[in-house]
Structures are given as structure tokens and as C-alpha cells.
Amino acid sequence: MFKKILIANRGEIALRVIRTCREMGIKTVAVYSTADRESLHVRFADEAVCIGPPPSKDSYLNMVRIIAAAEITNADGIHPGYGFLSENAKFSKLCQQHGIKFIGALPEQIEAMGDKATAKATMKAAGVPCIPGSEGLVTDLAVAKKEAKKIGYPIILKATAGGGGKGMRQVWKEEDFETAFENASQEAGAAFGNAGMYMEKYIEEPRHIEIQIAGDQYGTFCHMSERDCSIQRRHQKLVEETPSPFMTKALRKKMGEAAIKAAASVNYEGVGTVEFLVDKHRNFFFMEMNTRIQVEHTITEEVIDYDLVREQIKIAAGVPISGLNYEPTRCAIQCRINAEDPFNNFRPMAGKITTYHAPGGHGVRVDTHVYAGYTIPPNYDSMISKLIVVAATREEAIAKMERAFGEYVIEGVHTTIPFHQQLFQNEKFREGDFTTKFLEGFELKRPG
């Protein structure tokens, strides 16, 4: 087992990893930018190393400084959390070269799943259902137009190196294709330094459902059921729940088997997630595989009563997994609380939190790194907290979430709490009748 782990991340996920390490008797090293000097992960780690100024490229994305911090503190493992370097094959390889265990996927596994076109080809070969689309990247406009006609409109253009909705366009008819293709590839090139595009059949009325998987160093794989992540704004998840209100036992079995096939096809090591789009007829199609812990891992933990970060660390240390698949018997929901003004187009809000009171009680969990007096820096993602509830049924979980939001006090900055309160009062949402497009028709009412 590891003696000391450096957490190459910040915020709530860094604090989350520190907690598990402490329970396992493992020493921790926090790294931080000058903007995060007062963050809780810095306070609660056994050691802390400043790795640079606020911009991510000079701190949390600076591989050389992070490796140097690990070496000077004698850390034998690096946990990357999510985001930043968590799915960076070069960083995983750099850790290998310096004799430090990267607590995540191996470089070749990240490479196989990191490029969406390559991942799709791998999944097809493994027998995992994939959305009809182009064979590899499309570069020539005339060829792309022919391919789109063959697939059949509507189609969706996607950047191969994409994320967060950038380099993505829906095209409903042939005459709009050229403009959409040029705009998407230019946006992808600017955002990712890679203008490569591929296209797929656009799935109407889709659900975004992912399967939590784990694989060890000995070729054993298992899944821990699904999470429904369909409540999204601009392709960013806002609410996640398990089990999905759309799920059936038969569908869960099929999707679980497909996810294990996906993991086995790259001999996956660690915890990860296989993401699918599910149409209104419950046909499911591979979307991507995330080779890291997810923001929403919390709800799976609550329904299976197991620490997934502990599982990650154990797998990295060479401990075999049990290989048991799971079917949920309880319901858990997570809401992401962002420092954004929901009544001003969700504008991000930096600033000082003047008052902070977290909800509590049976079945309520808050994962956060903020506190009264904490100043939210403008340099990073706007998520400041995750509110998680678990109950026997979905109806009870919704009631518990509404009660918890009634207790949650964050003052000094705007947050998305009012948005969540209105969402949970929506009848369609309460009935579980929603798709990834749900928020496009959602009307947020200003108080008063």
C-alpha cells in the first residue's frame, strides 16, 4: 500500500481524496496555486507545496512542477482527481518514468479512450453498440456531405478532442451542413489545438446514462450500476441520480454487460465510467469512456455503501477487486452547486462567501471546500459544492433534497441553489420525464 499520495488537484475533490487517505493511514501532499493558499485541501493535507500562480497552465496543469513536488516530498503515488491532468496520457507516462504510481488509467488506456474516433472504433470491434456515423475523422467537406447524407439527417458534428460542448453542431438539413462544419472545426481548433471532426446520427429525445465500472491489474472487471446525467445545461451536468427513472432490469443488464466489454477491450485498470446515449425506445449507444473518477461518483457510493476513491487506491496498489456487479436498492441524487447567477444567464461569480451553513440530517451529504470567509477565485471551474441525498425511494430522495436546500445558506455570492429549488418543483422532473434537452424549455422564475 502507498505510504504517501500527492493530490494533483484542488477544491472538493482534493479534500475528498485526503479524507480517504487519512482513513487508510496514508500521508497526503496538497499542491496549490497562489490563488488557493487559503483552501481547505491545503489546510488538511499533511504537507502542502505551492506550484505556481493562479492560471492552470502555470500550476495545476504544470506536469514538471507537480512531479517535482512529488519527488521532494517522497510521494509514491499521485491521485489526479478529475479534470486537469486526470486523463492526460503524457502525465500518466511521466509518473511511470519517475517511479511514481499514477492512481488512474495506464497511458495506453487513456490514449485508446481519449480520442473519441479511436474509442468508437475500439468499441465497435468489441461489440459495444455505437451510434451510426463516419468511419474515423472527416476532413474533406465534399466527402463529409456525402457521408452525412448516407447516415441520414439529423446528424451531429463533434470535435474528436472535444469536451464541454465545444466543436459540436447539430445539423438538421443538408443546406446547413457546410456552415456548421466550418464553424465547428474552427471552434475545435481554437479550443483544443485539434480541428479534427467526426459525425454521428443525432439521437432524438436522448437520455445520458453512464455505467460505473472498475477493473484490476489481474483482468477482472465489474460494474456498479448506472447514473442518469440527463439534466444538463450546454452539455454540462447539473443533476445526477441513481437508479435512472428510465431504467429497467433488462436494460441495466445489457448496459452493464456492454460497459464491461468496453473495459475489457482496453484491459482497463482503475475505476472509470462508460457513457451512453439512450433513445426513447431504450436503444443505447456508446458515447465515451472516462478514465477517471467522476464528479458524480458520490451517488454510486451512497447506494452501494462503498468508497470508490478507496477502491481506486487499492486497485493502483495491486489489490484485486471482488468482481461483483451491483443493482441499486436505494435512490441517491446529487446537485452541483455552482457560484453562478442563474437569473443572469448563469454568469460565474467570484468573490467572498460571507455566510455559510450546510444542511445535515439523515441521508444528507455535502462535499465542498468552501466556508464562511472563503474567497472564490475567478480562475477555475465555478462548482463550489455538491449536495447529495440518499433515501429508500426517488420520491423520498426528492423530498429530502428539497428540505436540504431549505437549510442551505450561502451568502456573499450568487449560487445555483434557486435554480435547483425550482427544478425540484417541476412536475415533469418529479415524474422522471426528462431528456438531455429538458432545460431548453425550462423557465426560471425570478423571486418576487
Mean pLDDT, rounded to whole units?
94
User: What is the H level of CATH, i.e. the homologous superfamily of the largest domain?
Assistant: ATP-grasp fold, B domain
The termini sit apart by 56 Å
Tally of DSSP helical segments: 14
Provide the CATH architecture of the largest domain. Answer: 2-Layer Sandwich
Instruction: Tell me the domain tally.
Output: 3
Report the C-alpha radius of gyration, rounded: 21 Å
> Which structural category fits the helices and strands?
alpha+beta
Please mark out the parts with pLDDT under 50 across 5 or more consecutive residues, or reply none: none
Q: For this structure, what is the CATH class of the largest domain?
A: Alpha Beta
* Largest sheet strand order: 13-12-9-10-11-14-21-19
Q: Which topology of the largest domain does CATH recognise?
A: D-amino Acid Aminotransferase, Chain A, domain 1
Give the assembly state of these chains: single chain
Summarize, please.
With about 450 residues, the protein is of the alpha+beta class. Helix content is about 30%, strand content about 25%.
Question: How are the SSEs placed, and which strands pair?
Answer:
Elements: E1 4-7, H1 11-23, E2 27-33, H2 40-44, E3 47-52, H3 63-72, E4 77-79, H4 89-97, E5 101-102, H5 107-114, H6 116-126, H7 141-151, E6 155-159, E7 169-171, H8 177-192, E8 197-201, E9 207-215, E10 221-233, E11 236-242, H9 249-265, E12 270-278, E13 284-290, H10 297-304, H11 308-316, E14 331-338, E15 340-341, E16 347-348, E17 351-352, E18 355-357, E19 364-368, E20 375-376, E21 383-391, H12 394-407, E22 409-411, H13 417-423, H14 427-430
Parallel strand pairs: 1-2, 1-4, 2-3, 4-5
Antiparallel strand pairs: 6-7, 6-8, 9-10, 9-12, 10-11, 11-14, 12-13, 14-21, 15-16, 17-20, 18-22, 19-21
